[in-house]
Amino acid sequence: MDKTNVTAALAAVDEDLYTLRPDGNLVTQSTATSAIAELLERLEVRAGMRVLEIGTGSGFSSALLSHLVGPAGSVVSVDVVAELTTRARDLHASQGRTNVAVITGDGALGAPGSGDFDRVVAWTTPSLLPRAWVEQAAPNAVIVTPVELAPSVRSAAILRARVDPELGPEGVELFAGRYVEMHDVELEQWLVPPRGVDALVRSEDGLDLWISAPWAGRDGGAARGLLKALADEGTARTGVLETGESAVDLTAYLYARRPEEISVVGLGGPLWGVGYADRDGAAVFTAANTGSALHGGASGSLERLSTWVEDWRREGRPGYPDLSPVLTREDDGWRVRAELAGG
């Protein structure tokens, strides 16, 4: 990873100018500086390169890319929200960043009419690695993007891939991270995923509960029944992990071992988690308390999740460093799945 150049770019770009509005409020579509830095380090951008960015957001990341590629390089940034692209374009112009072009459009299409990008980076999560990004990449280009690792939405991690001129994209590594789901229209809300939700109910207090899982897609009535029960009866927390154990590592393991069996459940507002659910109950790990499972309904769901935890322990508690990405060609791109080292 190239930390020195990224550190220099962070020092050269006025972050507040890009991420704060005139009233001092943060631009909603801003990413934490540490997360931006990590992705750009893995992207390994060098002077003179051509970079495709998917997800302009505040424009801060494209300003950093502008600095990294230098006067001999160029950046094309794409976002579906016209207000954001106009704002970023104006800010870049005010700072004399003439090597950045900002486009309003569907990020899944990349930058139509352009190509030979040495690097592709995305701040939004597609279900597949889009075909357009690969077609617009130069031989041996590096792509860094979040992508879903299971049929359920929000089952995401960050992929680093390299485009082989003969074989196409080849996965290099996976690491923890995710961004909002890729969408082709401007969103009016951020709490319910814009795609991939198999059932949704609204509780009496106005909270939206949702589920994404292969079984829920096959039996929407049962999935809605589960969500209604969770809304009416509530949930409880039970400690499942021991001190020092990581729900992030466990989730990585489940992506590799149980991609077709995991469920992702939204429990109202920003609260959602990954785990096990069926028509009778749900038990998931959420970001709010990673040592405990949030569960409701019949106890069988918590028991199943606990069984998965025991399986993970027997295999030595593997996590992201133990995963390898496996890419499979589909019509619209490449499906990405995780595989544990050693099979």
Q: How would you describe this structure to a colleague?
A:
By secondary structure, the protein is of the alpha+beta class. The protein is 29% helix and 31% strand. It is built from 10 helices and 17 strands. The protein has helices at 3-12, 15-19, 33-43, 60-69, 82-94, 131-135, 214-218, 220-233, 247-257, 300-314; strands spanning 50-54, 74-79, 100-104, 117-122, 129-130, 137-148, 156-164, 168-175, 199-202, 208-212, 236-239, 263-267, 272-278, 281-286, 292-297, 323-330, 333-340. The strands form 3 sheets. A 7-stranded mixed beta sheet has the order 3-2-1-4-6-7-8. The chain has a 7-stranded antiparallel beta sheet with strand order 9-10-12-13-14-15-11, with helices on both faces. It has a 3-stranded antiparallel beta sheet with strand order 5-17-16. The protein is globular, with a radius of gyration of 21 Å. The mean pLDDT is 95.
Q: What features would you highlight for this structure?
A:
7-stranded mixed sheet; 31% strand; 7-stranded antiparallel sheet; 343 residues; alpha+beta; 10 helices
Write the layout of secondary structure elements.
Blueprint: H1 3-12, H2 15-19, H3 33-43, E1 50-54, H4 60-69, E2 74-79, H5 82-94, E3 100-104, E4 117-122, E5 129-130, H6 131-135, E6 137-148, E7 156-164, E8 168-175, E9 199-202, E10 208-212, H7 214-218, H8 220-233, E11 236-239, H9 247-257, E12 263-267, E13 272-278, E14 281-286, E15 292-297, H10 300-314, E16 323-330, E17 333-340
Parallel strand pairs: 1-2, 1-4, 2-3, 4-6
Antiparallel strand pairs: 5-17, 6-7, 7-8, 9-10, 10-12, 11-15, 12-13, 13-14, 14-15, 16-17
Helix pairs in contact: 1-3, 1-4
